[in-house]
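Raw record, unedited: TonB-linked SusC/RagA family outer membrane protein
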Amino acid sequence: MDTEILNQRPISKVDQAMVGQMAGVRVKQTSGVPGKSFSVQVRGTGSISAGNQPLYVIDGFPLEPATQNGSGDFGSGNPLDNINPGDIESIQVLKDAAAASIYGSRASNGVVLIKTKSGKLGKPKLSFNTYYGINQTVKKLDVLNAEEWIDRASEIIDSRWVSSGTGRTADQTSAERQAILGGFDTNFIKDDRWFQEGHPGLDYIDWQDEFFRTGEVKSYQLSARGGNEFVNYFISGEHLNQDGIARGVNYKRYSARANIEITANEKLKFGINIAPSYSVTQDPGVEGKDNLMHYVVSATPISENGLDYNIGDNAPYAWGRSVPSPIRTIENTIGENKIFRTLTTLFGEYEISEGLRIKSSLNLDNTEAKNKYFKPSFVDRNRQASGSFSSYQKQNFVNENTVNYDLNFNDTHTLSLLGGASYSIFKYDNQRILAAEGFGSDDITTINAANNISASGTYTLETKKVLISYFGRAQYGYQDKYLVTASIRRDGSSNFGRDTKWGVFPSASLGWNIDKEKFISNVEFISNMKLRASWGLAGNNTFSDDYASISRIGFSNYSYNGNFATGQVPINSANPNLSWEESETINFGTDIGLFKGRIFTSFDYYVKTNKDLLLSVPVPTASGFSSAVTNIGKVENRGWELELTTRNLQGGEFTWTTNFNLSHNTNEVKQLGPDNSPILGGSFDIEHNILQVGQPLYSLYVVQQDGILSAQDIANGAALYGNQTEGDPKYVDANGDGVISPADRVLSGHPNPDYVYGMTNTFTYKGFDLTVLLQGQSGGKIYSTFGRAIDRTGQGYQDNHLGFIRDRWRSPEDPGNGIEGKAYSTFGRIKNTDWLYSSDYWRIRNITLGYDLGSVIKTNIFSGLRIYVTAENWFGDDNYYGGFNPEAVNSNGDDYGAFPLSKSIVTGLNFTF
């Protein structure tokens, strides 16, 4: 990809630069929280449990892969955390197995090769890049305003009142109802102030307006680059300060890098790359279902006047939620995450003879993270402070040794041989202390100030895994026309059983530069033409349980003679036959350049089959365990990729270049063990996705809605769910048993888009440059677990509700839109198509207008001076109303309440001295 964009527009994360740039590489911004990583998938989803993120290799150092959790977050850090995008020289993605298999293990999901900047021969070159901008939320959810909330609340309260006893009518006043009840009960009595002019004593609140804000972003980057015949160097430093678009959210990063290479003599050179970084994230827990943003969206839009939004010694609003103000909770809750990370590479290279070189490198990725959480008593409904402290340490050490031999026979035959071995050890330590309550003062927030430490929430964890690898590769070329590559890698992983640790991953590829042939070289409009074919195997050993192949013991309590005794018991069902997931890829492609390079296109067709998938499956309860990890199943991804670059206008003062990419991928489960039994997944009440042979991974599996129940439907014996009545949603009795139940769930879509596309148009005129990036996807579905939590059937009136409820059924004479049931349904919960949405969207990701001031300011001080202004995410469209972001869909099709994306206006300066 073109890494010039890393310096030409404001980019805070390396993976952000990859959005919309390459066919077959889907980059999702699953969260708008500053500092959160993007999700990257190469050629679809192939693994069920072993992760689908690619392997990242920085300057030859393979980083330990990370796995996202259910909410799409990387709980123990992402490989690209804290890396300064301004340090990047190039990014290359290896998609087919022949190219990636030299990395063998962990390469089944593709490989992202990142090269950082190095020194260059010449006098020192100083660069200073800075930008400042403001950002706001891309969208707010459509929820009821105070008047609409009152309308719904009144309808529910009146319904409860009428059904609570004989002689009770909806037109009875609050005083009459109180007299009948002999007391005051908000379940049956409305607030008279709702209907009085100016609603005296009440505040009407838009909680999202209170929550979201205009944030600021500031970045400063300084670097020096140069070298001579003995030493080359690149040194940089960076500071980023990014306020979130919501109160209480902030991200700061400090990073530095020194890449130094020393040439000792004609044969020997060595060097060091070191990159320390430190980041601090302030996040009181805004993201996710049942977290603070959920409370903001669903908060009662009415409060007693002057009660400081339900905080303090005053009683909360009687008709509202019995929880404190989410805004004050956000402002007073500490959620602080600190990460200190250092990437270090030491390397040496020696030329034994002409064409024969050996190289050795020592690589260490050391991360230390600390997370502190504290919620004071005055924002807790039980008036009890709570807190926690956790930390983790990660160390990834890799020693790699290679020998290269390059031969060239009269510029006709070229041969390159590579052999090597590597040793990798990864250690992870995690500690957590949870204090449920018992803090003596809200001013002392350290855990030692609490007198009630939770035993179940306090633990330590230590893991270690080792990977040993041997690899080789041969590349042969004849007259630069015919190219052959073959490679093989043997990996041994401590994750697997004694007899199954080793995996062998071969590959082969062929290339034919047809434009070198005489019958094509005379065709003037063809600049170049190449045919490609490849086959290869790659492995995957990224699984959440590093010790699933061996038996482990843990602590448990047992009642003995009336007393509890603590002892050690087996805690897992070991599988000594556990082995590698394998990914086999067949790829055919062509590259064509036309009209002296004005048009270039690349097309690939691939079939990627993942087999022996690692999965936790149910086992007989007689074993003493509920599940065991095993190699089971097969998944196929099949698709094509198109990349097109056109130089529409060139040669004059005005130029215009277009880069377009489009990819299509279909995903299908081919096998699920010996009997191919479907596996249900999902969470919260009822499973709503399924693994089923012949269907895409994690297909959505819910009950279909079919309008609204009428009295006639019920009289005709319509299938009902629980105690449904007239005005409730009507569901399809898929299995025909006469009742609605989870057994009526049917396949209702899949979470993976059919098409992903991106297009960048670049214009230049004299000193001006303009870049516009369009990106989007189509063909997938998203299930909003978050939307269901604020839009579910049977929800009480205290919570606010999505705006769909405006068009609800009110009576047979006022049936609404035929989709939204009545306000006061009480028949219970179900997983149905109400919360199923299209994940299609298009978005103008970036518009950047720059001007080269060097063309008008003549000075010996600057060798380059550019100013630019950027608009991010200001234009786009989607049909997702159950949450903030259609990209937030995780691998199993859910949105758990992702934080919205931000739109920003940023201005920046690029100086070169």
